[in-house]
């Protein structure tokens, strides 16, 4: 199967339809991180068209992804894409609001890439699903270079969104349970681990 062709096809679709997907160097960084840390079980908040879920699943035949999306059109497109890659047995797609669903499983990695205004709520809700030495990865931390930039030139909606992202960054920095590292790759990526797992 020509994975490269299919991935390029997804990238073109996202570009044409204005669907936000991870930047190329961001997804490369994430998949390399998954490989290096032997991550097998992933929960993704924000499927969009399945681009990152598929890329993560392709790292290793043992990787499984559960991904949540609340937009029906994007969810249906993601189902099509997952089928094209024959990954239905390893990627589970859920159509629902992440804040309204309860998941009992434990995951090696939780990837947050959905509504930026809800990042703190996502982190607080799903950190209970994280394996003891697991990772919470958040995308769009830099948000096109807008975090920590001059807000006076922004529209009201954009200003509110950027302010919420900055609150999330501070929430990560001040978090007593988790230690976070920030990476200037793609659109900015944060990787959080439990502090206790460092000391054991």
Structural write-up:
This protein has 200 residues and is α/β, with parallel strands linked by helices. The protein has a domain at 3-15 and 23-97 and 104-139: Rossmann fold. It is 40% helix and 22% strand. It has 7 helices and 7 strands, in the order ααβαβαββαβαββα. It has helices at residues 3-17, 24-36, 51-57, 72-84, 119-126, 156-174, 195-198, and strands spanning 41-45, 64-69, 91-95, 107-112, 130-138, 178-183, 189-194. Strands 3-2-1-4-5-7-6 form a 7-stranded mixed sheet, with helices on both faces. β2 (64-69), α4 (72-84) and β3 (91-95) form a beta-alpha-beta unit. The chain is globular and about 50 Å long. The termini are far apart. The relative contact order is 0.14.
Helix residue percentage: 25-40%
Q: Which superfamily, in CATH terms, is the homologous superfamily of one domain?
A: Vaccinia Virus protein VP39
SSE-based structural type: alpha/beta
Mean pLDDT: 92
Q: How many runs of DSSP E, i.e. beta strands?
A: 7
Q: Major beta sheet, specifics?
A: 7 strands, mixed
Percentage of residues in strands? 15-25%
Strand order of the largest sheet: 3-2-1-4-5-7-6
The CATH class name of one domain reads: Alpha Beta
How many helices in DSSP terms? Answer: 7
CATH topology annotation of one domain: Rossmann fold
Q: What is the CATH architecture annotation of one domain?
A: 3-Layer(aba) Sandwich
What string, H for helix and E for strand, traces the elements in order?
HHEHEHEEHEHEEH
- Please report the distance between the alpha carbons of the first and last residues: 43 Å
């Amino acid at each position: 199967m020509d994975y490269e062709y299919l991935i390029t096809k997804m990238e073109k679709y996202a570009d044409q339809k204005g669907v936000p997907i991870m930047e190329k160097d961001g997804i490369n960084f994430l998949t390399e991180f998954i490989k290096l840390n032997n991550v097998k079980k992933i929960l993704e908040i924000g499927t969009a068209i399945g681009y990152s879920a598929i890329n993560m699943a392709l790292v290793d035949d043992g990787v499984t992804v559960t991904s949540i999306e609340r937009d029906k059109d994007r969810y249906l497109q993601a189902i099509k894409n997952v089928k094209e890659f024959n990954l239905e047995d390893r990627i589970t797609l859920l159509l629902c609001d992440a804040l309204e669903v309860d998941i009992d499983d434990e995951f090696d990695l939780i990837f947050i890439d959905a509504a930026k205004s809800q990042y703190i709520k996502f982190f607080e809700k799903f950190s209970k699903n994280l394996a003891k030495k697991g990772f919470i990865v958040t995308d769009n931390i830099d948000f096109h270079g807008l975090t920590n930039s001059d807000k006076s030139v922004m529209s009201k909606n954009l200003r509110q969104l950027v302010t919420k992202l900055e609150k999330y960054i501070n929430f990560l920095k001040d978090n007593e349970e988790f230690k976070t590292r920030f990476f200037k790759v793609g659109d900015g990526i944060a990787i959080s681990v439990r502090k206790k797992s460092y000391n054991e």
